[in-house]
């Protein structure tokens, strides 16, 4: 059993907050353990709660189309949410619920070690972009250590406001560019300098 599947087992029986009482299924996340791209949403919805998988409704179908536009498939990226259980009536997460799930998300990021994290909810975005608005920063990458964080609108937003689809397509187009730039930077990183030869003392 890998560390990630062991983490999923912990999530499935998690009793840390009130959401444990109303869930049908937990939704830990899914994708390859060596994914270069990780996408973090807010919380499971109705369909996700029923199936135990993230992004399986209409927004998930649009996500598949957006990924196809940059020659990626869903099974090439890692997808999860800030919360692993559905809040009642899809309400906003409460602080204590996010705190209960924080260690799970921390471990997922540490285990996957993605090159790019795409945030598609304000609650995921707030981790790296405190008190910022998505309308002002969407599509603008931020370097955080060895990681690049790219905030985007949630695909569901384009279902309610079709004009946002073009915005999402343009923001998704940044992902391959960022991965290419990161690969080049890694290749160009100079080898560590050898220490200078020791001078022999004549005395």
Describe this structure in words.
With 203 residues, this protein is of the alpha/beta class. Helix 1 runs antiparallel to helix 4. The C terminus is likely disordered.
Radius of gyration: 20 Å
Which ranges are low-confidence, i.e. pLDDT below 50, for 5 or more consecutive residues? 194-203
List the total number of helices: 9
Number of strands: 5
Q: What would CATH call the architecture?
A: 3-Layer(aba) Sandwich
**Annotated CATH topology:** Uracil-DNA Glycosylase, subunit E
- Average pLDDT metric: 92
- The strands making up the biggest β-sheet line up spatially as 2-1-3-5-4
Shape: globular
Give the amount of beta strand, in percent: 5-15%
Number of domain modules: 1
The level-1 CATH class? Alpha Beta
Oligomer: single chain
TL;DR of this structure?
The chain is 41% helix and 10% strand.
Q: Can you lay out the helices and strands and say which pair or pack?
A:
Blueprint: H1 3-12, E1 37-41, H2 46-51, H3 58-68, E2 78-81, H4 95-112, E3 116-119, H5 122-125, H6 134-137, E4 142-144, E5 147-151, H7 155-160, H8 164-172, H9 174-188
Parallel strand pairs: 1-2, 1-3, 3-5
Antiparallel strand pairs: 4-5
Helix pairs in contact: 1-4
Keywords summarizing the entry:
about 200 residues, Uracil-DNA Glycosylase, subunit E, 5-stranded mixed beta sheet, disordered C terminus
């Amino acid at each position: 059993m890998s560390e990630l599947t062991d983490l999923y087992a912990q999530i499935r029986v998690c009793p840390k907050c009130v959401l444990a009482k109303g869930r049908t299924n937990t939704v830990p996340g899914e994708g390859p353990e060596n994914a270069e791209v990780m996408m973090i949403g807010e919380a499971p919805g109705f369909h996700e709660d029923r199936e135990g998988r993230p992004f399986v409704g209409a927004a998930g179908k649009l996500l598949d189309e957006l990924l196809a536009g940059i020659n990626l498939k869903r099974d090439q990226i890692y997808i999860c949410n800030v919360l692993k259980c559905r809040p009642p009536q899809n309400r906003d997460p409460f602080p204590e619920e996010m705190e209960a799930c924080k260690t799970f998300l921390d471990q997922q990021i540490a285990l996957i070690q993605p090159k790019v994290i795409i945030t598609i909810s304000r609650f995921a975005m707030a981790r790296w972009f405190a008190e910022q608005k998505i309308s002002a920063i969407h599509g603008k990458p931020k370097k955080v250590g060895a990681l690049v964080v790219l905030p985007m609108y949630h695909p569901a937003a384009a279902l309610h406001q079709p004009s946002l689809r073009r915005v999402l397509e343009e923001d998704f187009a940044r992902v391959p560019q960022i991965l290419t730039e990161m690969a080049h930077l890694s290749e160009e990183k100079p080898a560590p300098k050898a220490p200078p030869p020791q001078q022999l003392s004549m005395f």
